[in-house]
Amino acid sequence: MKKSKYLAAILIFVVLACLLAACRESDRVAYNVSQQADNFNITRRLVAINTRTDKPVLEVIGNFAIKNNTSNELEVIVEVGHERYKKHYVYLNEWITYTVEDLSGVFADPYHYEVNFLPQMIQPFTLVSDD
């Protein structure tokens, strides 16, 4: 009976070792980088792009976390000071997509951020008279 328990314990150990060995380094790194970004430790650039015109409409640079909400919006939470944050929204639709670039190799003030609206995408509004 002791022998069978011993063999069962060894078998369980071998199976667990194989499962843990199956974790790829890239998976661990991707998880760790995502955690660091969500904790505002990585400087990144987010660019929202109008896919119909191929032009960027918004750019955010700084230490921020992002997530998609249930209203088809991208929530961008930016750290602006010690325990101070601002939240911005990017409405996503069939014409707007976004990309996020890791800039952590670039030295920057951890509380500095930029939001750039690109003026070439802002269309003037004209009223049409019924006269």
Characteristic key phrases:
131 residues; alpha+beta; 6-stranded antiparallel sheet; 2 helices; elongated
Structure description:
This protein has 131 residues and is an alpha+beta fold. It is built from 2 helices and 6 strands; from the N terminus they run ααββββββ. The chain has helices at residues 2-21, 25-38; strands at 43-50, 55-68, 73-81, 84-91, 96-102, 114-117. Strands 1, 2, 3, 4, 5 and 6 form a 6-stranded antiparallel beta sheet that branches. Strand 2 (55-68) and strand 3 (73-81) form a beta hairpin.
Task: Kindly summarize this structure in a few lines.
The protein is α+β, with helices and mostly antiparallel strands and 131 residues long. The chain is built from two helices and six strands.
Per the principal axes of the C-alpha atoms, what is the gross shape?
elongated
Give the structural class.
alpha+beta
Give a short account of the largest sheet.
6 strands, antiparallel
Helix content: 25-40%
Provide the fold topology:
Layout lengths: L1 H20 L3 H14 L4 E8 L4 E14 L4 E9 L2 E8 L4 E7 L11 E4 L14
Antiparallel strand pairs: 1-2, 1-5, 2-3, 2-6, 3-4
